[in-house]
Design goal:
The chain contains eight helices and eleven strands. It is globular, with a radius of gyration of 17 Å. The protein is an alpha/beta fold. The chain has a single domain (2-215), classed as P-loop containing nucleotide triphosphate hydrolases (Rossmann fold). The chain has helices spanning 40-48, 70-80, 96-101, 113-119, 135-147, 165-178, 203-206, 210-215; strands at residues 2-10, 16-19, 22-24, 29-33, 55-60, 63-64, 81-84, 153-157, 183-187, 199-202, 207-209. Helices cover 32% and strands 23% of the residues. Helix 6 (165-178) links the parallel strand 8 (153-157) and strand 9. Helix 5 packs parallel to helix 6 (165-178). Bound molecules: adenosine-5'-triphosphate and magnesium ion (MG).
Length: 222
């Protein structure tokens, strides 16, 4: 279970985001919806321990992440969290399978990679360089790479952001399917995808701070 308790993030440029308390239960899938700039990516980064909250705590399975050191949080992220970034963060000049096997450098066992690539329909591309793949294929590689370590928590930031609706819908179905039994938190802008998730969280309602002014057009966000 992931608990968000009294979390507030203030960036150096004074942007303030306050999150209402939230709980993400084990084994459920959540879709985060909300206006651009309301703080969705920031929340994923705080859960992953990449960003620290200015105030408040993220508690994962009863452990307060803010009581741990950054190296401890990094270790937990590597072990427990699969993070799918919107821009994939794949290495273009390397093959699909090498992009996954590189995780061995972090001590991750990648023996399940072929099975995952097969489930995602791209096993025959395993020796292709990333730069020769389509957007949907790259997204599937990013999903396989995030899942190969069997994380308990999967965070996905706009996994369909670069895809047309039909391919995006297919990728979401596959993501939800391969994430079954784990906690999945995915940001998407498309409410047509809501039916594939157990819960939809309206992040406009879960955040406040200067973001309200941005949404009301009273403050430039640039
Ligand atoms: N590193 C940073 N430094 C300063 N401000 C930041 C930083 N990262 C995010 N912000 C600000 O925090 C707010 C929330 O950003 P965030 O990226 O979480 O939004 P988002 O909901 O993911 O938006 P989008 O849907 O456009 O991806 C924005 O106003 C953004 O400008
Ligand atoms: Mg974002």
């Amino acid at each position: 279970m992931i608990e968000i308790k009294g979390v507030k993030k203030q960036f150096q440029n004074e942007t303030v985001i306050e999150y209402k308390d939230m709980v993400f239960e084990d084994g459920k899938s959540y879709m985060l919806l909300g206006a651009s700039g309301c703080g969705k990516s920031t929340l994923l980064n705080i859960i992953a321990g990449i960003l620290s909250p200015t105030k408040g705590n993220v508690v994962i399975d009863g452990e307060n992440m803010q009581e741990k050191s950054q190296p401890q949080r990094d270790k937990l992220r590597i072990k427990q969290i699969g993070y799918i970034f919107q821009d994939f963060k794949l290495i273009n000049e390397m093959s699909v399978i090498d992009n996954i096997n590189i995780l061995r450098l972090e001590g991750i066992n990648t023996k399940d990679a072929p099975e995952l690539l097969n489930k995602l329909g791209i096993l025959e591309k395993k020796k292709s360089k990333i730069k020769h793949l389509s957007g949907g294929q790259k997204q599937r590689v990013a999903i396989a790479r995030a899942l190969v370590k069997k994380p308990q928590i999967i965070l996905a930031d706009e996994p369909t952001g670069n895809l047309n609706f039909t391919i995006g819908e297919q990728v979401i179905k596959e993501l939800v399917d391969v994430s079954r039994g784990k906690t999945l938190i995915a940001v998407t802008h498309d409410d047509r995808l809501a039916k594939y998730f157990d819960c939809v969280v309206d992040m406009n309602e879960m955040t406040s701070g200067m973001q309200d002014l941005v949404r009301e057009g009273g403050l430039s966000n640039d």
